[in-house]
Design a protein that fits this description.
This protein has six helices and seven strands. The chain is an alpha+beta fold. A five-stranded mixed β-sheet has the order 4-1-7-5-6. Strands 2-3 form a two-stranded antiparallel sheet.
Length: about 170
């Protein structure tokens, strides 16, 4: 359902947040926000370890009180080994639509010293918008460093946090 219709019907705004971390490892490609980013190491994980999409999925699932990404795609299941995280975001966005809601906007922050995110931000935003089925102007992707502190500062891993606003039908 589109946002104007939901608002006219008195939709309930529901916010969610997500956070994810993965360690950098040799021999893996680096996937962030659904695109491959050139870098000497990638993120280790059961799936493709796209921390940004994982954080966003957790934000969406949280806003719907549907648990987290591990509930829907358990890392203990071989099915998800090296899986493309795009599949996870399509699932989360599909649940929103299935329940008659809409994703109003998403905001993703990637936390790392390297690689630099800004040169890839538009491609990342475009891919997230495509996967979530929302317009580009409702997707924000940005980055920050941890000022060389902690595991992200030492270049040992990458973290991401995400916030989402959903508009869901009001059910009494």
């Amino acid at each position: 359902m589109d946002i104007k219709t939901l608002l006219a019907r008195g939709a309930l705004p529901r916010a969610g947040t997500g956070y994810d971390v993965h360690v950098l490892a040799e021999g893996r490609k680096l996937m962030l926000c659904g695109i491959e980013v050139p870098h000497e190491r990638g993120l280790a994980g059961h799936s493709d370890a796209d921390v940004a999409l994982h954080a966003l999925c957790d934000a969406i699932y949280g806003a719907m009180a549907e648990g987290d990404i591990g509930r829907h795609f358990p890392p203990s299941e071989a099915t998800w080994k090296d899986a493309d995280s795009a599949r996870f975001l399509r699932h989360a966005a599909g649940l929103v639509a299935e329940k008659g809601g809409a994703i109003a906007n998403v905001d993703i922050t990637i936390i790392c010293e390297r690689p630099k995110i800004t040169p890839h931000a538009l491609a990342m935003r475009s891919r997230v918008a495509e996967l979530a089925g929302i317009p580009l102007d409702r997707v924000s992707v940005k980055a920050t460093t941890s000022e060389r502190l902690g595991f992200t500062g030492r270049g040992e891993g990458i973290a991401a946090q995400a916030a989402v606003m959903l508009l869901m039908p009001f059910v009494a």
